[in-house]
Amino acid sequence: MRRILLVLLLSVSLIACDTDSTSDTSSEPAALMAEPVAFEPTEAGRPPKSALASEQVVHRGNAEEPQTLDPHLAQGVPAMTILRDLFEGLTTTEPNGRIVPGSAAHWDISRDGLVYTFYLDPDSRWSNGEPLTAQDFVWSWKRVVDPATAASYGRMLVPVKNAGAILAGEMAVDSLGVEALSDSSFQVTLEAPTPYFLGLLAHPTTYPVHRPSLEAHGAAHVRPGQLVSNGAYSLSDWQVRASIDLVGNPHYRRAGEVIVERVVYYPFDDEGTEFNRFRAGDLHWTYQVPSNRFGWLQDNMSEALQVAPWFGTYFFGFNLQQPPFQDNLALRQALNLAVDREILTSRVTRFGEIPTYNLIPPGLPDYTPFVPEQAEWTQGEREAASQRLYAEAGYSRDNPLTVELRYNSSENHRRVAVAVAAMWKQVLGVQTRLINEEFRVFLQNRTMGRVTEAFRAGWIGDYQDAFTFLELFHSQHARNDTGYANPRYDLLLEQIAAERISALRRNLMIEAERMLLADQVILPTFVYVSKRLVNPRLKGWQDNVMDHHLTRHMYLLRSIESTVPDAHTGQTEDG
Amino acid sequence: MLTYSIKRLASAIPTLFFLITVAFFLIRIAPGGPFDTERALPAEIEANLAAKYHLDEPLVFQYARYLWQIARFDFGPSFHYLDWSINDLIAQGAPVSFTLGAMALVIALLVGVPIGAWAALRQNRPTDYTVMSVAMVGISIPNFVMAPLLILLFAVTLGWLPAGGWAFEPSRMLLPVITLALPMIAYIARITRGSMIEVLHSSFIRTARAKGMPEKEVLMNHALRPALLPVISYLGPAAAGILTGSVVVERIFTIPGIGSYFVQGALNRDYTLVMGVVILYGVLIIAFNFLVDLLYAWLDPRIRYDEVDV
User: Using the beta-carbon criterion (under 8 Å), do A240 and B81 form an inter-chain contact?
Assistant: First the structure.
């Protein structure tokens, strides 16, 4: 009953928004959409003090409550966002997503690309003032690969020597290829050159954890008052499912450059609620926007609406382990060609998603995805080819394919699935049975591969490299729910992992993607976009494909209305 | 009375035991586990997690372990909120839900009973019809419609009250409490009206009136007390329900109560969390039903539970 209520609730909160869309919009609180002052940035590219709002407190909506704030155990975008504010890895990101030195001021890479020596920034400290040392990293990384820790992203460190064997329980934890050469130099030995290794070091799994507090408090070491971190902010308060409050860390190595003094993260179960809080002026930054209101938002809140390509692809998988898709390339190709991506993105998802025929999204600095030829065709040509292949596969309008299309319960997934089924029906006459399942039931069915035929899938890359997508289809990968097992593809992946020359490696990756697409393992539909509402006074951040936005880059400008000089502002600035 | 109370409390133990057993095995039957995610874990890590949380043991062992734990009032670690134990989560969420629920309950009684009694006194007159129609509407509008409407009006459009979020301040509590109280007011008003009409037609009221007792005294001393009996029996389970929070209200107003745990716990396969809130709810239901029975005896002199008088 409660479950039904929940579903009803979702739909009604949307209806509630829709009813409102007809009402006049002049009721937007003035303060929310107040235009920010114009300013000339200083030489460092930062705003002058006079342009800044007197109170630098940012309120950010953050989807679900984080499962944990232990960087080694955390998973999910909301937890990672908070961890990037609390901690800092050896590298970090600029507002545009570029990887730059973090806790490590600089590093040397050996000629063969196997040994990295990091020299820690002498100003790097823990939030309790203790210096951050190379030993902290050695201990933390060993904790990540220790099977007893059961780190959710333990495999992130697999490029490090012996990490894979340690995770599998085959080698001792101490054999991990890391060493503290001195208090400030940390050396890592890799299994194979890994071009994206520096990018991995900005991921929370590689962050250092403060050993004394973990040993003193156990799992409770992440609670307020006990969490010692090394990032721009420290944890000041945590009310479960209400708010997580961070304040500037005075011991942070660049504390002087941080403008936002306090950031509060709020979890939201419901996007409509978050939207209302933003409209009421309670939030500067939302995690998402109500999914079917793009038109309204564009018309009424265009200065706040922010949409940018994201490093993820929405696709459907075919279960290759049983009929009807097993050994039926023509059928898979026919279904693939029958889907009109343009209609899907312009009429169904409608948030500027990018139609795609690829697995790997655009935007990687070192990878140009191979473009399958059907991407260049007109939809008419695709449909003609689709019908021909459908007949080749032994089906016709009189003898249509009956197929199950499975997705996890969500209004958005339902709409996409309905549209895809309608296109299959219209172009080919396919009879599709739509099956929606609660998330964990869906995942289990996908993993087992016994009842699935075609199923929804999606992937957001973990690090900026095409390999994060390609490895999913290795025959042994735990998330390879299609059951794709192509020894040539597996071999390619192994070659990519071992290749030292980046141009050759890139070509191997293009070859792998081409092979995967030619085998029609998946039906890619569109590239995800990140979409949120941001108060126009909040600046300092930029769109980036990984969608990482650190609060320490941000600042709040004064609004034009409040620039009229008054005693109050003068006082705060003096203080 | 004492014997009765002891008997009742003793019978609560098998009831709870039955509840715990059924809930424990039901949640385990659900497909999928607490550590399933889209990013599948390597087999060795999954095995480690299972071992850490004793999920690799036979179910009967886990059940025995769980019973032994809760016998010591330890509800175990959460399988989803890794940094907190179930005791922590309930200790943080329950005061929030209790406060909101208790306030809604008090308001519902203070408003619902007088309205119902008033309508009964004006039975079949325009006032009665108006009050009862409004009450019917109150029952029919679900809280997931009422809550967004209240937010749109008072928070987004008028800007008088916050659109959600939680703090122990009147401004943050007002809208959620109203949302929770409205349907209860309507229920209580309807029940009071019905039983009041019945009582007003009974012989002891006629006798009281015949003896020349002032009407005010007839109503307050003789009519209201028995008329409240059905309200009290409604309140037992209703109070347990409202004090354990409402998933809808918590979701829409972003309130960190325990109501959402009934749903989130099940969706996340957070076995221990589901057990924790189910047990809490069970204990409250049993406790309130017991209280209701005691109140019955106090309100209606005709009801006595055992030979020994109080």
Answer: yes
